[in-house]
Design goal:
Blueprint (H helix, E strand, L loop, with lengths): L1 H13 L9 H9 L7 H11 L4 E4 L6 H12 L3 E4 L3 H15 L5 E4 L5 H10 L4 E4 L1 H10 L9 E4 L2 H6 L3 H9 L6 E6 L4 H4 L1
Parallel strand pairs: 1-6, 2-4, 2-5, 3-4, 5-6
């Protein structure tokens, strides 16, 4: 029993956020948010993502998936794009990213129902910002030439299955065509339909 207990203790130790060697500001912020032990999806995604690998993972809402890709985004310092299927999720992702970095990394949220002009102004003021967006509004900005994605290094597709079921496949194709081919990609979905696997 003692051997089993020791093994379990080592597993927990290896799952701790403080073993990830994160930037001090990020480590402090996630500690303040109460993050200590990685959830299964965080353990599956964060270490390989920090190594620059592409990720395909299943993750339900409430499993800590935003931190699973948010920490690699902030730790890498690469300009990133996160696509979400709904305005509500996009706003939540932006809020979580801001909290995890202590407000030190700018993020612009591009969603329908919010003033286009304000979004255009934010992009012009901080063109290096990370972008969190819904597909339709991002395509509007692409059409207007107000957003440039040719320097995106890390692309996250959150709730990819939901996005396909909502009919965003054409928008997704348009968006991916204007990004570099050699980008890192993290794709998360509750289930993995054939359209996502391709």
């Amino acid at each position: 029993m003692s051997g089993l207990a020791g093994g379990a203790a080592r597993m927990v130790e290896n799952n701790r956020f403080d073993t990830l060697d994160l930037r001090p500001r990020i480590a402090q912020s996630i500690e303040e948010m109460g993050f200590e032990i990685m959830t299964p999806v965080q353990q599956k995604v964060i270490p390989p993502a920090l190594e620059g690998r592409d990720i395909l993972a299943t993750a339900q809402t409430g499993t800590g998936k935003t931190a699973a890709y948010g920490i690699p985004i902030l730790q890498s310092g690469m300009r990133s794009l996160v696509l979400a299927p709904t305005r509500e999720l996009a706003l939540q992702v932006q809020s979580d990213l801001d909290r995890m970095c202590g407000g030190t990394t700018p993020t612009v949220c591009l969603i329908g129902g919010a003033p286009f002009r304000d979004q255009k102004r934010a992009l012009k003021r901080r063109p290096e910002s990370n972008v969190v967006a819904t597909p339709g509004r991002l395509c509007d900005h692409i059409d207007q030439g107000t957003v440039h994605l040719d320097d995106i290094e890390l692309f996250v597709l959150d709730e990819a299955d939901e996005m396909l079921s909502m009919g965003f496949s054409e928008d997704l194709n348009r968006i991916t065509k204007v990004m570099p081919r050699d980008r890192q990609t993290l794709l998360l979905a509750a289930t993995m339909p054939k359209g996502v696997e391709r």
